[in-house]
């Protein structure tokens, strides 16, 4: 049974203070694109109370703290290209759209790693790597429109999966925000980063049910021979 609360005007004001009024959506018509992913049919749609578009991990954390205090459901969302329903806000509440977090933060050619925010479109990564005759093999079929955060959240795979494996094979580290608002760093550039629990593998494919992904460090970038 749904025991979550709804977003009130007071909460909405607090959210606007965090991300700015321009990055808040409440209009029903404008909410429609955020009510579904690429699964067809009205059966797989649900409207949120509000869409919030943060621009940093700190803003994500502030939103999550408000949601935790007021017992509001939060649905993280990337580009909405999935076919798993993970981006559908079935309990309403807040859709946390990460589309504004679209920066490439670090490109380490020597160690063949690239660190990006979750809203980076997967095609953008390969366009950058192509300048050095490299490519990122862990991308799904919708590489021209899907975002990296969504790829990781669903452990997506595409046409190269049989030969190269799915997204999770290439994730070395994550920065995530927990449901209570804490920011956590997990893993990193080092391949031999095996102390403690393998939390990276736990979070890859968890579809936003455990934490919100705010940074992805991908490794094992490969030379392009094609």
Major β-sheet strand ordering: 5-6-10-8-9
- So how many helices? 7
- Sequence of secondary-structure elements: HEHEHEEEEHEHHEEHEE
Tell me the domain tally. 2
Shape: globular
Rg over C-alpha atoms, rounded to the nearest angstrom = 17 Å
**Reported CATH architecture of the largest domain:** 2-Layer Sandwich
Distance between the termini: 52 Å
Most strands sheet:
5 strands, antiparallel
- Structural classification: alpha+beta
Task: Give helix % range.
Answer: 10-25%
CATH class of the largest domain: Alpha Beta
Low-confidence stretches: none
Mean pLDDT: 91
Query: Which fold name is given in CATH as the topology of the largest domain?
Result: Uridine Diphospho-n-acetylenolpyruvylglucosamine Reductase, domain 3
Strand content: 15-25%
Number of strands: 11
Write the layout of secondary structure elements.
Layout: H1 9-19, E1 24-25, H2 28-31, E2 50-52, H3 57-70, E3 74-77, E4 94-97, E5 104-108, E6 113-116, H4 122-130, E7 134-135, H5 148-154, H6 161-164, E8 171-177, E9 183-187, H7 199-203, E10 212-218, E11 222-223
Parallel strand pairs: 2-4, 3-4
Antiparallel strand pairs: 1-2, 5-6, 6-10, 7-11, 8-9, 8-10
Helix pairs in contact: 1-3
């Amino acid at each position: 049974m749904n025991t979550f609360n709804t977003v009130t005007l007071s909460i909405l004001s607090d959210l606007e203070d965090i991300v700015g009024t321009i990055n808040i959506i409440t209009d029903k018509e404008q909410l429609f694109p955020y009510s579904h992913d690429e699964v067809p049919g009205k059966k797989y749609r649900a409207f949120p109370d509000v869409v919030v578009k943060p621009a940093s991990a700190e803003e994500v954390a502030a939103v999550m703290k408000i949601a935790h205090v007021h017992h509001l459901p939060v649905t993280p969302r990337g580009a909405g290209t999935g076919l798993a329903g993970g981006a559908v806000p079935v309990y309403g509440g807040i859709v946390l759209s990460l589309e504004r977090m679209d920066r490439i933060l670090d490109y380490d050619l020597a160690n063949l790693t690239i660190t990006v925010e979750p809203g980076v479109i997967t095609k953008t990564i390969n366009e950058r790597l192509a300048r050095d005759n490299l490519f990122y093999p862990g991308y799904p079929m919708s590489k021209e429109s899907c975002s990296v955060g969504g790829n990781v959240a669903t452990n997506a795979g595409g046409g190269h999966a049989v030969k190269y494996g799915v997204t999770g094979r290439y994730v070395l580290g994550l920065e995530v925000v927990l449901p209570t608002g804490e920011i956590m760093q997990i893993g990193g550039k080092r391949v031999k980063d095996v102390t403690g629990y393998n939390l990276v593998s736990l979070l890859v494919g968890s579809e936003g049910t455990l934490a919100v992904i705010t940074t992805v460090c991908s490794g094992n970038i490969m030379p392009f021979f094609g």
